[in-house]
Write a structure and sequence with these properties.
CATH class: Alpha Beta
Pfam families: TANGO2
Number of helices: 6
Organism: Mastacembelus armatus (zig-zag eel)
InterPro entries: TANGO2
Strand order of the largest sheet: 2-3-4-5-6-7-8
CATH architecture: 4-Layer Sandwich
Number of domains: 1
Number of strands: 11
Structural class: alpha+beta
Protein name: Transport and golgi organization 2 homolog
Strand content: 25-35%
């Protein structure tokens, strides 16, 4: 989302097994310009789901809902980490390269962006959709576990709520973050949803029902990280992450990072 005040307003949930080991968002070690959470799952260590660098690169990934994923497929989280580390490929060229290797992965949606002095660029590729990446024009987009802007009820509901908030010019930066966190923590079920149910035919009915909420809650799987990223017109970044502690849905920690893009 772009407004006159902000070049980017991003609100994202990470849904995952509560027990999957992960590192909360932070800069990658001493002098690193990359900020993200990290997967610590064996064999997938170092992958991520969402990150941004001080050099102006951003990437985010979601899984595509499908039955019987291939257990031997490559880790999708490396698609985010590799882009953030790459110093040569622009966002579109990177996705073009990824599209030639899409068959090596289970279903995913990948967004890459770069914030530059001359022009900001954001691109999208989903390996269960069009074979070519696309450039995203300024606007409001919704992405869940289907292709970009697939009209699942949860997505439409969240997008409406998001739009009403970012159009409220009276909100301060802190107020905007808090209101967007309210969007991401909404546990209201959006059922029945025939579009989502058709795609998730391999899932149990209780799981499909749980997955119909913006904030997913089931016994062992659900929303465990909420992230808000704001990039203003002066290249200032505010990155806020709220993350679950010790697989306990009642215990959360919130951290915030502020820095200026080096573009």
């Amino acid at each position: 989302m772009c407004t006159a005040k902000f070049m980017l307003i991003l609100a994202a949930n990470r849904d995952e097994l509560y027990s999957r080991p992960s590192k909360a968002a932070d800069f990658w070690g001493t002098n690193s310009d990359i900020l993200s959470g990290l997967d610590l799952e064996y064999g997938k260590e170092g992958g991520s789901w969402l990150g941004i660098s001080k050099r102006g690169k951003l990437a985010a990934i979601t899984n595509y809902m499908e039955g019987r994923p291939n257990p031997d497929a490559q880790g999708r989280g490396f698609l985010v980490s590799n882009y953030l580390m790459d110093k040569d490929l622009d966002s579109y060229t990177y996705l073009k390269k990824v599209s030639t290797e899409g068959h090596l992965y289970n279903g995913f949606n990948l967004i890459t962006a770069e914030f530059k002095a001359k022009q900001d660029i954001m691109c999208y590729y989903g390996n269960r959709g069009s074979p070519e990446p696309i450039h995203l024009k300024p606007g409001i987009y919704g992405l869940s576990n289907s292709l970009l802007d697939t009209p699942w009820k949860k997505l439409l509901h969240g997008k409406r709520h998001f739009t009403s908030i970012v159009n409220d010019q009276s909100l301060s930066g802190d107020g905007l973050v808090q209101e967007l966190l309210n969007v991401l923590t909404n546990e209201e079920l959006n059922t029945p949803d025939s579009v989502q149910e058709q795609q998730g035919v391999a899932y149990s009915k209780p799981m499909i029902k749980a997955l119909s909420a913006v904030c997913v809650r089931s016994p062992d799987y659900g929303t465990r990280t909420n992230t808000i990223i704001l990039v203003d017109a002066e290249d200032n970044v505010t990155f806020t992450e709220r993350t679950m502690l010790n697989s306990d849905t009642s215990k959360w920690s919130t951290s915030s990072f502020q820095f200026k893009l080096q573009v």
